What we know:
Radius of gyration: 19 Å
Number of helices: 10
Order of helices and strands: EHEHEHEHEHHEHEEHHEEHE
CATH topology: TIM Barrel
Shape: globular
Strand order of the largest sheet: 2-3-4-5-6-7-9
Largest sheet: 7 strands, parallel
CATH class: Alpha Beta
Number of strands: 11
Strand content: 15-25%
Amino acid sequence: MQQIYTYGSYLKDKFGAKVYKVGINISGFTCPNIDGTVAKGGCTFCENDSFSASTDTVQALKGFHLNLDSKENPFLDKQLKQLEIQFEAISKRQQKEYGAQKFLVYFQSFTNTYAPFETLKALYEKALSFENVVGLSIGTRSDSITQETLDFLSKLNEDKEIWIEFGIQSVYDETLVKINRGHDSQNVKEWILKSKQAGLNVCGHLIFGLPGETQSMMLETSKAAYEWGIDSVKYHPLYVVKKTALANEYKRGEFTPISEDEYLDVLVKSLLMKPKNVSVQRVTAGIDDDSLLAPQWCRNKNTQIKNINQALKKVGLKY
């Protein structure tokens, strides 16, 4: 049975220690297809309120949002404090519960390059100053990063482990229009290639089960992402949560979620065509609370992983 090359294995091999990602959520960040720059309402599957950041001591900055053209940021000190408090709390828990020894600070929610350069520079440098932090992983969109930011990350990458995570989702522009993505697939390709040219590590997010897509379309997206040179991949099934445009489509009978059997089939095929050097960070996703409308098989993560391994076993693989 061949073990799939996981991101955890990659980090362990490189750093000789247990390295954990510390997910950070900074108030004031948003997306260009939420604030109206490229579209309104966000992606159809995105429940925007779920990303409102707050901690016990630093409250969310309600009504304050940054973008690439913001001239000033009066709340930078509060954002830096949020970063510090979240990192301390999460990293301590990871040390206690999982034996974590080193950390990557993961700027996770919303679009984490969609802000003035000086704000990004301050946040990234602060994150790298924390004890036992070996690098950053920055979740963003390909239409929300500048060459100045990319050049800065490239410089940081000389001494630290810098990852940039792009939501690819699909290489079919008609699909991207359906989900109100706000950019085309050429834009994603362009910035992945630029990121690779800058020497950065790139993780690509792929969603299976998008509206109107066949299995061949999903596999074509995987193939393209691999060809663009991504270093790691996250696979997600599309699930429906309340308070989204996709939820309205589902209720009207205009969208049928991918079945578990269909997801398992396309996932296995995508993994089989994956280059061996591309690590896997995620093989499924879901949520187990009242916000989930469908499909119900996305509710229990343990069951999902069990079924994925059963499907992989048939082709000699293990996750």
